[in-house]
Amino acid sequence: MQFNRYLTCFNTKELPEERVDTIIVGTGLAGISTAYYLLQLGIKPLLITKKKPGISNSFLAQGGIAAAISPEDSTELHYEDTLKAGKGLCIERNVRLLVEEGLERVIDLINIGVNFDRDEKGFIKLTREGAHSRNRVLHSKDKTGYEIGKTLLSYVKDKVSLADGYYLEEILTDEDRYVGIILSDGNSQKVIRSKSIVLATGGYSAIYLRNTSAYNVAGDTISVAYRAGCELMDLEFVQFHPTAIYLEGKPGWLISEAVRGEGAILVDENGERFIDELKPRDEVAKAIFKKYQEGHKVFLDIKPLLEKGIDFKERFPNVYSMLKEFGLENETRIPVSPSAHYTIGGIKADLNGKTDIKGLFAVGETSSTGVHGANRLASNSLLECIVSGYKTAYTVYLHNIYANILDVDIKNETQTKEQLSKEERAEVLKNIKTIMWEKAGLIRSRESLESAILDLENLYNSIDKFCNVRYLKDLIILGKGICEAALKREESRGVHYRIDFPEENEEFKKHSILEKNFKINHRK
Questions:
Q1: When you count CB atoms within 10 A of the terminal residue's CB, does the N or C end of the chain come out lower?
Q2: Residue 132 neighbours by CB under 8 Å, 6+ apart
Q3: Contact in structure between 112 and 36 (CB atoms under 8 Å)
Q4: Any idea which residues carry the catalytic annotation?
């Protein structure tokens, strides 16, 4: 499958143009955090979003943010827990930065007024989630992401420039240097030039048919960056959350791991408990999946939680509201199954946001920094957003001191003006999601992955002649990258499970790097 460097038709000489110092694409927690710290450094960024600020998966994060603030805890223990969950693939220096800087950044959040839950003495409440050895998860009911996000957003919303309702179509480069971007509102395009750009557009779980991504954040920007010359890392590591509501034909809404942390258990239709609910997520998800393969059903039983005297509606108002929407608010056993949730892979970057392209930075779930290894430790994702946003802001500041806005004109023409209808595009999108779910999902094999790659290539070729399919092409490119990385990793590690290679293999204790033309390289 061959793809062009640029997938849309444009001529920068003929488009309206804007110039700014720094662009941030995405207004979830990673983007807002970066903006918050850039403002403190005197840089007023332009924020670009498809919808409105705060409409993101991180703002929907229920469980909490992990930090070793308890007197019974330490950053060393947090570090060790993260490495253990990561199954040998964590980049240790980045994990060290995450847990040590993360503690300081969480103190920042407390000081600026994030309303974390407190007990009757005024002490911050801490809960424990899967694979943590201590209670270290700060939370705000079951709306922690929203609470952190709204607090930061209140600081930045009137101080930044905002372009909402725009899609990032192209990243313009001159060799390995960032030049600018092409934006579209669906009707017209414009070019924006800047000294630097920060990509904070989330992960790619919505490329799967069954996912917890409420806003279909599908990861096409990651593919745009790949076309621009960024390497992608560890795409095969997709975390399937064990407990998403399972009702036929309904969305896979997430039920926070914190519900299990407070005492809920997993049972089959006979009420038999079959797994330690606080094991790492990959183990719990595979145990549930196996139950379904054996013909059983699986439920999250909240009765033990209620017997402890916990008021479910008060402790988990967001989950309760969701259950009420599905008519399950009075049930003590909630039907659940795994669902694509968090993507560890993404644009290869360090915790300072640096990528292979000068002036192009990536933060949060859009990036792959190695802090999660092969399996993310619960509640480390919001922590990464804050830490990486902080460190990236300072790195952008240093970059901008010695950078100029580059005046490089670029033109790209397409061969046709033929278009797919809205209904036809929706059908192609469904096909992509179905292929990824059925053949590159929780359980994989050489046969299924090779079949997925062939299906994606055929799908790409079938739409190649149309001019309004950039988004779909970028998803197919990303999907093929995921499959190629999963195919080349001939082992099972963390959230990556190969039924034909069910054990870990020391030979693959390396990161998967997607280079140009879908070439996979394994590097330590």
A1: C
A2: 66, 81, 377, 378, 379
A3: no
A4: 281
